[in-house]
Amino acid sequence: MVSIDGSELRRITDSPGNEGSPDFSPDGSRIAFVSNRDGNSEIYIMNADGSDQRRLTHYPGDGDEYFGNSNPSFSPDGTKIAFTSIRKETDSEKENGEGEYVKVYYREIYIINIDGSDEKCIFCYDEDKWKLEPWGYLDIFFSPDGTRIAYRPDWWSEYGIVAMNIDGSGYEKLFSIYRGDEDFCISPDWSKIAIDVSSRFGAEEVSGIYLYDIDDELREHGINLSNNPASD
Predict the structure, then answer these.
(1) Helix (H/G/I), strand (E/B), else coil: 95
(2) What's the longest Cα–Cα distance across the chain?
(3) Which domains are assigned to the chain?
(4) Cβ-count burial of 124 within 10 angstroms (0-12 exposed, 13-18 middle, 19+ buried)?
């Protein structure tokens, strides 16, 4: 944790595992995060000062490093957390050079109450459609009223940023993505989107942060926020 002026840098977790992906609750009182302190990646919650650390999810993981939960995101009212989970795998049609098929992992989206109750899958595995690589991930953003989520599928270059209702219905594309686009974030009111866009600068490939209105589908009015020859 650090103040936005760079002061008061302090460590708020100290477990033997790896931890990451922190997300503040809307009122700033809690932080959801990922930890593998108990053997595989699970969603935890704690007070913003690091106290009262509690495990919310309990997926056993089956001993595979790719299995587990990640990318927590608080709902606007602070009562729920959406997260992604890898719990299923199959053999792909690709070989690893040793006669073995490369595993394909299926990432799903779940929602859980902050007390750990009522965990449910809202974007679930479909054998014919949702084949995802283990190193891919999804960023999740709730709509202002908490009724919808937007996220980036691993295959986002084809489908773009998509949105759906929190019960899994109403699936639709929210914003187009082009080759070279990387990470993104959506403003809390869902009016704007910022994207890490890769481009050529002289002989080097660099990336910059561009801002668009969410309805600027053709990207006619983007603003280069970082605007320098370094990669941002």
Answers:
(1) strand
(2) 54
(3) 19-140 (2.120.10.30)
(4) middle
Distance CA 148, CA 171 (A): 10
Residue 214's contacts (CB-CB under 8 Å, 6 or more residues apart) are 174, 175, 186, 190, 191, 192, 193
b/e map of 157-185 (b: 16 or more CB within 10 Å)? Answer: eeebbbbbebeeeeeeebbebeeebeebe
Residue carrying structure tokens 């929602």: 111
CB 157 within 8 A of CB 179: yes
Coil vs helix vs strand at 61: helix
pTM, 2 dp: 0.84
Q: Which helix (H) or strand (E) holds 158?
A: helix 156-159
The SS3 call for residue 149 is strand
What are the pLDDT digits (tens) for 170-215? 988 889 887 778 788 999 999 999 998 877 656 567 888 999 999 9
Q: How far apart (Å, rounded) are the C-alpha atoms in residues 204 and 217?
A: 28
Tokens of 39: 């053997």
Over its C-alpha atoms, the chain yields an Rg (Å, rounded) of: 19
Tell me the C-alpha distance between 232 and 220, whole Å: 21
* Residues 6+ positions from 203 with CB-CB distance below 8 Å: none
Beta bridge partners of 56: none
Q: Mapping DSSP to helix (H, G, I), strand (E, B) and coil, where does residue 63 land?
A: helix
